[in-house]
Amino acid sequence: MPFSYLKAADFVFSFDSNHDTINNDYAVYGGVSLDSRRQVMQINSLVLAFVGHAVQEQVIKTHLARTIDASSHVLQRHSVAYLCCEAQAMAARAIFDELTEEEQAVYKRARNAKVSTVPKHATVNDYHAATGIEAVIGFCHLTGDDARAEWIVGRMREVCDEKTKKTTIEG
């Protein structure tokens, strides 16, 4: 059988293993059918944030493991500096204008989503902003644009690093 079927969430693509292409009857945008992009847009924004947090955590922890020679405990402490709600919110606000219109729409929808709880060490506004940027990362990942998701996480890391340098110099 020349085709194998991949299922991610509710999206089924036929994959031609001989030609490394995705075959479907829809127009393709960035490797994902436009129909599938619409399907991803319909996913609950908090679910997009759930996926985005996992992607962000993987990218950050992989970066730290490759760049810092330290124990897992030290690496975990470093990762928290990037993954905490306050850092995510600060970075999200700093890079908002660099997002596409579609990404900004995903961000705003997730930021405005009703949440039942907020972590005790986070403000409501920071939590909403962090949820928004996580949803954007999840959206990029689920539409197959992992390069864009990694770019966003990289920009967020740069913003956090810049803030850390300013705090160290001023403090």
Strand order of the largest sheet: 1-2-3
User: Structural class from helices and strands?
Assistant: mainly alpha
Q: What is the CA-CA span between the terminal residues?
A: 64 Å
Computed CA radius of gyration, to the nearest angstrom: 18 Å
SSE topology string = EEEEEHHHHHHH
Fraction of residues in β-strands: 5-15%
Largest sheet: 3 strands, antiparallel
Mean pLDDT figure:
81
How much helicity do the residues have?
A: 55-70%
Shape type: globular
> How many distinct beta strands?
5
Low-confidence stretches: 1-29
Number of helices: 7
3D architecture notes:
- The chain is mainly α and 171 residues long.
- It is 64% helix and 11% strand.
- The strands form two sheets. Strands 1-2-3 form a three-stranded antiparallel β-sheet, with no helix packed on it. A two-stranded antiparallel sheet has the order 4-5.
- Helix 4 packs across helix 7 (146-170) and helix 5 packs across helix 6.
- It is globular and about 45 Å long.
- The N and C termini lie far apart (64 Å).
Which helices and strands appear, and what pairs or packs with what?
Layout: E1 3-8, E2 11-16, E3 21-23, E4 28-29, E5 32-33, H1 34-41, H2 45-67, H3 72-83, H4 85-95, H5 101-111, H6 124-142, H7 146-170
Antiparallel strand pairs: 1-2, 2-3, 4-5
Helix pairs in contact: 2-3, 2-6, 2-7, 4-6, 4-7, 5-6, 6-7
